[in-house]
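Exercise 7. Predict the structure of Probable M18 family aminopeptidase 2 from Halopseudomonas xinjiangensis.
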Amino acid sequence: MTHSAINQDLADYIQASPTPFHATASLVARLSLAGFEQLEEREDWTLEPGGRYFVTRNGSSLVAFTMGEAGALERGIRMIGAHTDSPCLRVKPQPEMNQQGLWQLGVEVYGGALLAPWFDRDLSLAGRVTFRTTDGVLRSELIDFKQPIAVIPSLAIHLNRGVNDGLNINAQTHLPPVLAMSLDPSRDLRALLLQELTQQHLDSQPVQVLDYELSFYDTQPPSTIGLDGDFFASARLDNLLSCHAGLTALIGSNQQQACLLICTDHEEVGSTSLCGADGPFLEDVLYRIISDRTQRIQITQRSLLVSADNAHAVHPNFADRHDANHGPRLNGGPVIKINSNQRYATNSETAAFFRHLCEQVDVPVQSFVVRSDMGCGSTIGPITASRVGVRTVDIGAPTFAMHSIRELAGSRDAEYLIKVLTRFCDSEHLI
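Solution. The predicted structure, encoded as tokens:
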């Protein structure tokens, strides 16, 4: 595919994935279409050479893998890791607010979100809803209002003359979105969700909404922008771009090697959960693929993980926030992320191997090291490496405005990442 076709496919994936639940459901749909077989953790597994499988946990994390040809497993597993969650505004359990004749919902900030860009955007609502049916059975379904149903209006500058000198946002009082005029005093979110469930899932037969996990999101669709189409703008590029690249590489590989894609939830809040990278999901799957402990250790030590999570491109208006020798550029290819304090799990051998892969497919490659006088973020790479004991390289596509409601990448970088990840999946030899 050309990079424009890849970007359109990426846009379609992001549009269908406003929450981690939807992102995982979108992965499931694409894997099923490609002929992968779904496994259930509560059932026995029968894995065959050449088999292609996937399994989900919590509906928000997924592991997909190919067994490869006979003997492929013993050569090591080519692993790709990413995460399905993004910073956002989550609806509180009892959120209803009636203020100044307006109906609002209280929200909690999920992850390290840039809050200012959330103002004056056309917002919708999506997530997972758990309910009781007419038969007294508990069920969960995904919903997505899709249409703009809410907004967080800014305060006019006339009432806050110093706003351009520094915006101090109070997450409790400034962020509740406005959904409607509060003309109906009985308006209730659960009643609204019950109505939406009935419309979106005709066979669900809901009678009572018991709980939910709902997120607001921006309805503006992804777009290729710029005078020459150099940029790709979208919500949730961190880290759905990497999920999409890993999935495309896995499906597009020659299927001869043992490969694994893991996309986990809760990275933005530390990964400590049953379905996060600091939970047992990957270890549980590896145990079922390789039941013998000694053999599992041997194969893991022959394996390698490419932890794919977006990297900070050097911003032209804030170039001093980067080390002068380590400023990744948009459309400059994937970025190898390095930190001597193990905020990234890259070492010299894994970095060299990734550079080697890039050279094999003629993909440019860059490096990122944070300024020595600044703190460094982290990702799933060090967590997975420490839990599983697999050699790891942390990489990512360069982006601007990370953790904004709308982020910016280079329009050629998704293609670059897919090319090198596909080569990784097809590699006969690892380091």
